[in-house]
Amino acid sequence: DIVMTQSPESLAVSLGERATINCKSSQSVLSSSNNNNYLAWYQQKPGQPLKLLIYWTSTRESGVPDRFSGSGSGTDFTLTISGLQAEDVAVYYCLQYYSSPYTFGQGTKLEIK
Amino acid sequence: QVQLVQSGAEVKEPGASVKVSCKASGYKFTTYGINWVRQAPGQGLEWMGWISAYNGNTDYAQKFQGRVTMTTDTSTSTAYMEVRSLRSDDTAVYYCARDELAVPAYWGQGTLVTVSS
Q1: pLDDT tens by residue, B83-109
Q2: Using a CB-CB distance cutoff of 8 angstroms, which residues of chain A are in contact with residue B50?
Q3: A19 — contact with chain B (CB < 8 Å)?
């Protein structure tokens, strides 16, 4: 199984500042057939299901604000939230969907400083 | 719009079975697959498996092989997941999530399954 390791476990950022969350996979999630990295990012607020933010490493889901961006390739990936807003307080998870079983990172709790 | 509505909370005794439903609307059911993911209280996320709503093909995480069965009913656009021989560590919120370009994109509201004697 591919192990996904997120860092940090928790993060406190001031409103308007940048938040950066990292995700490392134990194996590459880059497909040689289509050159896509099968890496997604989700946001989860208390008592709610996951909300897809980004897929294929850097493609924003429809309706997701452009302050959310994703980058990386192979085994190292980053979610960046530029200009943090109060409604961004949540737990963020990465997911590799390159191979079965799909596996999630352990989550990063984002708070306001 | 795409909606996945799951069945209500369940309380089961150890050793029992539970069957969670996930009713889809807002799209052609047979075009996409359904993933099942669970989240134990205060814990992370665990992908359990996937079922094609087109032909019923399944892909189970090895951990759940033999204890979990995923099915679909195309006449009602509903997916089901049954877990047998429940244990206390099966206590979790169970989510269904529809594929979009291979990624679990649209999520149900979750179903809390509590296993307790």
Answers
A1: 999 999 999 999 999 999 899 999 999
A2: 100
A3: no
